[in-house]
Amino acid sequence: MERRVNYENDLNLMATELRLGLPGCGDDEPQRKTNPSIRNNKRTAPEISEVSSSESSSSVTMSGSDDQDSPPPAKEQVVGWPPIRSYRKNCLQSSKRNEVEGMGMYVKVSVDGAPYLRKIDLKVYRSYPQLLKALENMFKLTIGAYSKREGYNGSDYAPTYEDKDGDWMIVGDVPWEMFISSCKRLRIMKGSEARGLGCV
Amino acid sequence: MHKKMAFSFPDEVLEHVFSFIQSDKDRNGVSMVCKSWYEIERWCRRKVFVGNCYAVSPRMVIRRFPEFRSIELKGKPHFADFNLVPDGWGGYVSPWIEEMAGAYPWLEEIRLKRMVVTDESLELIAKSFKNFKVLVLSSCEGFSTDGLAAIAASCKNLKELDLRDCEVDDLSAHWLSHFPETYTSLVSLNISCLGSDEVSFSALERLVGRCTNLKTLRLNRAVPLDKIANILRHAPQLVEFGTGTYTADVRPDVYSDLAGVFSSCKELKSLSGFWDVVPDYLPAIYPVCSKLTSLNLSYATIQSPDLIKLVSHCPNLQRLLVLDYIEDSGLEVLASSCKDLQELRVFPSDPFGAEPNVSLTEQGLVAVSLGCPKLQSVLYFCRRMSNEALVTIARNRPNFTRFRLCIIEPKTADYLTLEPLDVGFGAIVQYCKDLKRLSLSGLLTDRVFEYIGTYAKKLEMLSVAFAGDSDLGLHHVLSGCESLRKLEIRDCPFGDKALLANAAKLETMRSLWMSSCAVSFAACKLLGQKMPRLNVEVIDERGPPDSRPENCPVDKLYIYRSIAGPRFDMPPFVWTMDEDSGLRL
């Protein structure tokens, strides 16, 4: 309250004494005691936290709460600061992930009958057998052997993928490098359904 | 004498004269000369600009301008870009589309910024406007690829489809296939914001192949490097091109194919995209660098040496967007190589890190300001600044029209003297007499606002964060900045006094945003009651403002002038203060 009274006096004075002098000339404004620390972690001006009865929920937030994959934040972050658009922030985060994990290539994996999708990083694998083994482990199922003529006939499950043109293909038909560059998502179908796919 | 004057020019002659007047401001000026000019002008205005979609109602616009062909609307306040405006605040375009669908079958162009657009609206556009040509959606959200499919399918004369920084729901990659095989009129396509599942490459290639007038093509990140060559082969006439992800295993055949195709693009002036850049593939664009005037590398996570090499090849660059990986050394090279540079934006690569990860300081900005005589627009993120540097910049570059400086840590003082940066920014406003837009940062007292109020006479937009000491700061700005149209403030100790003392000023501005400041609910109510032509919106997710004492500060405040009165599409956390505000809550 005292601060307000001081301020009122200031306003009256300044209203008559606003000068057009050049910047830097001496004046008699009370100099605000400046905080010398460069790294200042204050998020709101002290006046605000005195006055508001409850901490505004929107002024401070923990980052990373919506993105489990990113490393823990360096410090608490203020909403909307620094002023960077969400799209750019997301790009930065995914670039970081790539830097850390070496240009990851995440694709969604669905399994017929399972309620949730998973995501795997295709760049981690070097060959089809490695990938299939990983899928078997992840979903606790058996995929069985691939054969050029019959695909995964005889298996409970058959892995398929959607390529860049939107077509669904059997995993294993094309060379690994080509598969890696064209696979958009994986779907592990029940063996019975897969028999209808890609049979020539 | 009066009568003679009024009949001395037939309407058609005046209309013809007015047709040379394109700018909105001038058109508005023309319409205020006299009643007959108002009448003639309103019938021949072809482009309407509405800077705040709530300032006026669709019906009012249609009533006044019966024959416009092009409309531009803006919705949410600018701080919505940084998540300060809660979802659901407003900015819905549907009432506008619905009104225009009935009244304007001949509407050709719609440009929207920060608005909520639904698939239904897009479908209505596709259905209602037979000669529809241009759709530009900038920072919009609320629609999916289904809406885009409707546009593609029905708009036979579409020339421009530009989705900038939009949030689009990914439903189907095949919306592009909805452009009929007979459709060839595309001139500009920007899908850079679409996600990974939203484009089918074969449809894209076919589309590009048959649209021989295509001048602008900006792809999204999902388009891999090896697809670019094919696409460019179909469109060597492109003037503006945005790549997708610019990464692949390094293969000589892919590289030479790409370099060859770039060489054949003789008209290319602008490049963008470059997500996930692999430096080895950058030289593929060298053949076009000497003609480039615009380069957006702001997603390119490559280091300074590669950036320097690239920039040295582009002597005609006018516009550069880049990450702070360029560092001071890169900006020095820029300053010596690119004498035509007009606009520079340097974005932070690690904004949330506690320590600087690159050597980019105020020196880089000083170098560019000294070296580039045409530089007028700057957006610069850095971690330290000094008054000395700012004064040097201001003295050497008085032609700045846009100066936006973001020192990443709030309230950072001058690193040399530990003083506030008042004097530095004061020099900017004093020397740069044509400054239209300014964003402040760092440690700032009321003093900087005194400078701004005194000198920044052409300033139209000011952004302030974590600055000032008292209401005096706000008072200086509101009472001094004659041209001020938009003021946005966050986390400053500005309260009731300055706002109420300058209430009339608010009617001369488009809008004022204040969040996490010290404006009380009582002051908001008073303002709403006294100023019927202002919409005073209190945005508070903590609950109704009257559930707290009146002198409690509101969380967020958005004030804008309006002749449409209070809006009725507000979510539960927004309250408009008006004459009855005491009763309505």
Automatic annotation (TrEMBL), chain A:
InterPro entries from the UniProt entry: AUX/IAA_dom, AUX_IAA, PB1-like
Pfam families named in the record: AUX_IAA
Domain PB1: 104-191
Subcellular location, record wording: Nucleus
Region Disordered: start-end pairs: 21-80
Primary location group: nucleus
Biological processes annotated in GO: auxin-activated signaling pathway; regulation of DNA-templated transcription
PROSITE patterns cross-referenced by the UniProt entry: PB1 (PS51745)
Family, similarity comment: Belongs to the Aux/IAA family.
Protein name: Auxin-responsive protein
Automatic annotation (TrEMBL), chain B:
Entry superkingdom: Eukaryota
GO molecular function: auxin binding
Keyword Ligase annotated: no
Pathway annotation from the record: Protein modification; protein ubiquitination
Main subcellular localisation: nucleus
Subcellular locations according to the entry: Nucleus
Matching SUPFAM superfamilies: F-box domain, RNI-like
Family matches, as InterPro entries: COI1_F-box, F-box-like_dom_sf, F-box_dom, Leu-rich_rpt, Leu-rich_rpt_Cys-con_subtyp, LRR_dom_sf, Transp_inhibit
GO process terms (BP): auxin-activated signaling pathway; pollen maturation; SCF-dependent proteasomal ubiquitin-dependent protein catabolic process
F-box domain location: 9-50
Entry keyword set: Auxin signaling pathway, Developmental protein, Nucleus, Ubl conjugation pathway
Pfam family, one: F-box_5
Coiled-coil zones: none
UniProt KW Nucleus keyword: yes
Gene Ontology cellular component terms for the protein in this record: nucleus; SCF ubiquitin ligase complex
PANTHER family attached to this UniProt entry: F-BOX/TPR REPEAT PROTEIN POF3, PROTEIN TRANSPORT INHIBITOR RESPONSE 1
Protein name, as recorded: F-box domain-containing protein
Naturally occurring in which organism (per UniProt): Gossypium aridum (American cotton)
High-level lineage: Eukaryota, Viridiplantae, Streptophyta, Embryophyta, Tracheophyta
